[in-house]
Amino acid sequence: MCPMADAAARLTNLVEELFGTPFPLRLRTWDGSTAGPPGGPVLVVRHRRALRRLLWRPGEVGLARGWVAGELDVDGDLYTALDQLTAFAARRRGTIGLSPRDPRQRAALRALIGLAGLLPPPPPPPEEVRRSAGVSHTRRRDRAAISHHYDVGNEFYALVLGPSMVYSCAYWDTATVTAPDGSRTGFTLEDAQRAKLDLVCRKLDLQQGMRLLDVGCGWGSMALHAAREYGVRVTGVTLSREQADHARKRVADAGLADRVEIRVQDYRDVRDGPYDAVSSIGMAEHVGAAPYLEYARQLRALLRPGGRLLNHQIARRPERAGSVYQVDEFIDRYVFPDGELSPLGSTVSALERAGFEVRDVESIREHYALTLRRWVARLEDGWERAVVLATPGRARVWRLYMAASALAFEHGRIGVNQVLAVNTPPGGASGLPLRTRTWTG
């Protein structure tokens, strides 16, 4: 019998021997064979090269490279498959390595090497960040990281995000959202993003003639909304030239060039304060834990006494005592190079150390899961166009990271919070109403 015959059954058995627990997904391999439980999603191994990637780089990086290269795929519901794979990894009793101690594992590993045809490791897909060692979060390295993520093409982002061009958590009407994927709601993605932008404006108490600094302004949606709906003058800063070009065109088309200025500028180089308010929506994740206090101090220095900061930021759960936080390697290598998530408590503490008075914290974790599922649906609906606008590998990166992130928000592994802080003057007059939550009304 051909040693490669029925590769799916052989691979399933070897994985279960190595990990010591049943593999939850049905497998289909490069020879057309299938094995495993029927009725659910199918993990497709299109090429033996995917196994070689895992043998040379076990774990998340090897899996990510196989996925981005198109050697691994899922037929059926991606969310279910990711949930089952996550649970499988959590239950495993062993790990793939070059020298497993158990004799059966050693035998299984040798058989897996034979099945994979072990050769030198395949080169990483071109979408992976090539980065030299050095200090993170320098101005130059931050520009490169932002360019990797955002300078993918404005048309690609428009396909995923929709006309709002807002790349942060939307704010859904919970009275109409009745399913985890939002499928039965009449509240559209555009409605939810508009509601989020308006919520930020109300929390900042924007008034006609005020000056707003929008840090990490993206494609200009917050700046446009604040200028059009609240009559404020807005300065938006971004490190992405493609974002800035698109935002400037939107500003001109809206006839708001007299109220909105879009700059390609690092927030650390803004010098034209004081501003009445600062919005930072989905930007602080790029700042890094070590420079975060500098970030907070810089924003406070740009605010007038009594001015408000609205910091909208993804947060991770704090580690248990004695544990070490591990950066998600797939996200770091393919999505947000040098991105860092901090616990909410660390963020609040840094803002307070910088001199802010933190007045309100609102968790909107479930809202981000709904938002991400909408983005994934838009990407899948426009898949053929997406791979033309970006690359097949880049589109696969975005599909995997958004789907996995939706599950992470749903299961509470990460969250997102809006923190309202005030540059309270010495007299203590914050300017906030006694009942602040009236803005959510």
From TrEMBL:
<keyword id="KW-0489">Methyltransferase</keyword>
<keyword id="KW-0808">Transferase</keyword>
<keyword id="KW-0949">S-adenosyl-L-methionine</keyword>
<dbReference type="InterPro" id="IPR050723">
    <property type="entry name" value="CFA/CMAS"/>
</dbReference>
<dbReference type="GO" id="GO:0032259">
    <property type="term" value="P:methylation"/>
</dbReference>
<dbReference type="InterPro" id="IPR003333">
    <property type="entry name" value="CMAS"/>
</dbReference>
<keyword id="KW-0443">Lipid metabolism</keyword>
<dbReference type="Pfam" id="PF02353">
    <property type="entry name" value="CMAS"/>
</dbReference>
<comment type="similarity">
    <text>Belongs to the CFA/CMAS family.</text>
</comment>
<dbReference type="GO" id="GO:0008610">
    <property type="term" value="P:lipid biosynthetic process"/>
</dbReference>
<dbReference type="InterPro" id="IPR029063">
    <property type="entry name" value="SAM-dependent_MTases_sf"/>
</dbReference>
<dbReference type="GO" id="GO:0008825">
    <property type="term" value="F:cyclopropane-fatty-acyl-phospholipid synthase activity"/>
</dbReference>
<protein>
    <submittedName>
        <fullName>Cyclopropane-fatty-acyl-phospholipid synthase</fullName>
        <ecNumber>2.1.1.79</ecNumber>
    </submittedName>
</protein>
